[in-house]
Amino acid sequence: MKKPRIVFMGTPEFAVASLKALVDNNYNVVGVITAPDKPAGRGRKLRTSAVKDYAVENDLLVLQPSNLKDPSFLEELKSLQADLQVVVAFRMLPEQVWRMASSGTFNLHASLLPEYRGAAPINWAIINGEIKTGLTTFYINEQIDTGAILLQREVPIGPDDTAGNLHDILMEAGSDLVLETVESICQGEANPRDQPNLKLKPAPKLNKDNCRIDWSMPLDKIYNHIRGLNPYPSAWTLLQHDQDQIECKIHSAIIVKESHGLRPGTIRTSKKEILVAAADGFIKIENLQLSGKRKMDVVSFLNGFRFEPNDKFI
Fold first, then answer.
1. Is the model's pLDDT at 42 over the cut of 90?
2. Interacting residues of 222 by C-beta distance below 8 A, sequence separation 6+
3. Residue 96 per-residue DSSP state
4. Is 3.30.9.10 the CATH number for 5-186?
5. Which of 83, 85, 82, 88 minimizes the C-alpha distance to 17?
6. Beta strands 274-278; 267-269: pairing state
7. Is the previous residue joined to 39 through a cis bond, with omega within 30 degrees of 0?
8. CA-based, 20 to 30 A from 176: which of 17, 159, 217, 304?
């Protein structure tokens, strides 16, 4: 097979590395599908996706359908005569889209499938205290993240890795895996294998409830929760401050293993530190952000905020 006509589908920065790898290696990217521009910020100006920005800069054809089943979009996609479709960090595709390319449609997923199927695999791997994760390319089918596996690559997770730096590591490694996968398909060497049907750890979408800190958990679990949500969307808690409850994001922290008889959530402060009691020690906060305020390091925060004696995190 000659270098295929490729349609690339993706939206955020994570997908840009893979698209760039295809372009830099002279693959024939005949079209890029990405999310529609969306109003953002106080001025509600239209914001374009990272993938669109890269595609426009490199004179690639861009399509931005709001409805992937729209007949006019399907006609445009069909006219591109794609041999292969590559999907990285995009939405669920209808069958008439993923079946359109003659050599199939494959997706890059940021876990070692079948573990961590779902929307937030990077976050949940850290939240759950994993010491390794990885990347998988697989053919898309009717269900989310269940198709036949093409290639995988294992990536270690360090004890202090955050979702942010692991994202960047996987983004770059993923671009290499996309290239390897495309090459194996071009050479007729792809050997897809079915995923086992087992009960596995999921990676559901992050929401307000599953991002909240439970101070009754062990230190390690609270620490993993905080770093697994750093920098986005951030772990949060409520600060009981006098008669008020203030939402507070905890961006980064470290563990202090020290015995105490305090109730979980109890706050112990000095001029330079904030310690929060957990079941088996303290979480020492490094960066935090009260609702409506900017992110601050602890010393700066304590220069402008005074805790009351009975204040606590709940």
1. no
2. 213, 214, 215, 253, 278, 283
3. H
4. no
5. 88
6. antiparallel
7. no
8. 159
208: exposed, middle or buried (C-beta count within 10 Å: 0-12, 13-18, 19+)? exposed
pTM, entire model: 0.95
Strand stretches in 21-92, DSSP E: 28-33, 38-40, 45-47, 62-63, 84-88
Q: How many Cα atoms occupy the beta-carbon half-sphere of 303 within 13 Å? A: 5
Give per-residue pLDDT as tens, 165-206. Answer: 999 999 999 999 999 999 999 999 999 999 998 889 999 999
CATH code: domain 208-313 is 3.10.25.10
Give the Cα separation of 198 and 44 in Å (integer): 45
The alpha-helical segments, DSSP class H, found in 160-262 are 163-186, 208-211, 219-228
Give the CA diameter of the chain: 72
User: Can you read off the two tokens belonging to residue 308?
Assistant: 């009351």
Phi, psi of 275 (to 5 degrees): -110, 135
Residue with tokens 């997770």: 157
Q: What is the distance between the alpha carbons of residues 280 and 216, in angstroms, rounded to a whole number? A: 9
Domain boundaries, the chain: 5-186, 208-313
C-alpha–C-alpha distance, residues 102 and 35, integer Å: 24
Token digits for 2? 């000659």
* CB distance 212 to 225 below 8 Å: no
List the structure tokens of 47. 């914001």
CB 146 within 8 A of CB 117: yes
| Closest to 194 (Cα-Cα) out of 122, 154, 141, 121 | 141
Q: Which residues, 6 or more positions from 187, have their beta carbon under 8 angstroms from its beta carbon?
A: 1
Distances (CA, A) of 156 to 177, 195, 250: 16, 22, 25
